[in-house]
Amino acid sequence: MIELKDVNKRYGQKDGLLAVDGVTLSIGDGAIFGIIGYSGAGKSTLIRLLNGLEKPTSGTITIAGREISSVSAKELRTVRQKVSMIFQHFNLLWSRTVKGNIAFPLEIAGVPKAERERKVEELIDLVGLRGRENAYPSELSGGQKQRVGIARALANEPEVLLCDEATSALDPETTDQILDLLTDINQRLGLTIVMITHEMHVIRKICHQVAVMEAGRVVEIGNVLDVFQQPKAAITKRFVSQVTEPAGTEQALAHVRQEVPDGTLVKLVFIGERTEQPVLSSLIRSFQVDVNIVQGNITHTQGGAYGTLILQILGNETTVQEAIQYLHNEGVQAEVIVHD
Amino acid sequence: MIEKFFPNVDWELMWEATKETIYMTAASTFYTFIFGLILGIVLFLTSPGQLWANRTFNFITGTFVNVFRSIPFLILIILLIPFTKLIMESMRGPQAALPALVIGSAPFYARMVLIGLQEINKGVIEAARSMGAKTSTIIFKVLIPESLPALISGITVTAIALVGYTAMAGVIGAGGLGNLAYLDGFQRNRGDVTLAATILILIIVFIIQFIGDLAVKKIDKR
After folding, report:
1. Does residue A168 share a domain with residue A43?
2. Residue B122 pLDDT > 90, yes or no?
3. Overall domain count for chain B
4. What angle do CA B54, A88, A142 make, to 5 degrees?
5. Assign residue B176 a region: left if phi > 0, alpha if psi is -120 to 50, beta otherwise?
């Protein structure tokens, strides 16, 4: 669906800021593709290259067989109706009602009035705004505003939906509702979604693939579950720990070390169906060890579940080693946390 | 009762002058709105980072606006006499005041239009572009509606300034309440005529302000 080949974007002249640096990636039809990075990583620029709001300095961008970087201004406007966008701050017209805002892209596309009205009604139901159709944006909550944004973006039946930090201005609960709506739209309409964010939670919840950006470069790319299991780049590890390590892990470990200094601390990683197996109880039955649970967490991604468990195992040295070996054999990654 | 306070006022003449003032204000406000809006939009779109970003053109337009905004109105009228004669074929009557009134106030209004447009959330323009909107669509469906309260309050202020300008234009023979207050009131030393003209001008100003405020209140849904 979307192919980027060695795309560079430099602002200003030769010594200007290189916002996007040699990005090559491909996004499949119907995928939900996440791009994560801190502010200034170049992800906003990257997503704007996809609908031609920014022109690449070099490289090619192809969407559904059309090369965005070289089409005429007129053609680009037609392409944009098929590659729509939602925004962090919604960007609704305050002067128009919910209906008017949703009708706007249809007016741009030259859809006749009767058809426009029918389509708007349909979209209001799709995003769950029935009853609020005559309200002005100033009368809506953040979540409702983003629903209008989504309805507006879907009006011309796009093939690609670009989400520019679409949930970053929303509270956690509303974020989840909007993410559910996006997943639903992805499944029902089969459109490709590209979303940029700085929250790993968003990636975890709805994305199939993820690209991690740092200083204009894509430093890591892959299926979300794979990236969660084995993050390679340092920045990816930091992002992954956002969701897999609850706040306070460090303190909990320190506390346990102080209380029971002679135990072995082990971090277990469960993947996929392993998260549902009673590995721990069979461990205790088979070995002469005591187990103290320090912390546990299961993360669900679109590709499957991923769990971590931090244990303190007490017993004589060889038994503990055997126990850890047993866990390995059971398909659970077990890593001894060395005191440092 | 009224005769007692205003012994020298010829009400028929006063009413004629009022109509002339209203005509001059209304017509010049209309043209100022059109030309000021066009100028303001051009200034906005040619400014850096906008759709028609063009440093040279923006500089020339900006300079033009600043120059005409800075010339005192009375001097502008005199400077424009040859131009007025050329397009209006006369220097007398309310019609003749229009070129000077419009040229004097359109740049003033253009600045207010520019400020109004600059207050529009940049993201909204980007959103319209992302939907594939043409520049003309952006002008008529985003820029103007989204800045309408500012455009209306700006034209209200401009219209009130124009009432004042018509009084000055009266001095050079354009008629209206200013002319009457000056010739009949001041030069013939009839204080009551000046006072009556002043009251009528104030009433016109209050009505304009009232309509402007009401319109802004009704339009603004932010």
Report:
1. yes
2. yes
3. 1
4. 130
5. left
Distance CA A116, CA A127 (A): 17
**Chain A stretch 277-336, residues whose beta carbon is closer than 8 A to a beta carbon of chain B:** none
Domain hosting residue A303, numbered range: 245-336
Q: pTM for the whole thing?
A: 0.85
State pLDDT tens for residues A78-95: 999 999 999 999 999 999
Q: How many interchain CB pairs under 8 A, A with B?
A: 66
For A128, B48, B191, the CA distances from B65, given in Å and listed in that order, are 49, 17, 39
Q: Distance from first CA to last CA of chain A, Å, rounded?
A: 48
Which value does ipTM take for this structure? 0.87
Buried b (16+ CB within 10 A) or exposed e, B59-74: eebbeebeebeeeebe
For A97, name the nearest residue in chain B, comparing CA atoms only. Answer: B221
In sequence order, the 6+-apart residues with CB closer than 8 A to the CB of B15 are none
Partners of A93 on chain B (C-beta within 8 Å) are: 124, 142, 145-146
CATH at residue B206: 1.10.3720.10
Tally the residues of chain A: 340
Chain A contacts of B129, Cβ < 8 Å?
A: 53, 80
The reply to whether A182 and A237 lie within a common domain is yes
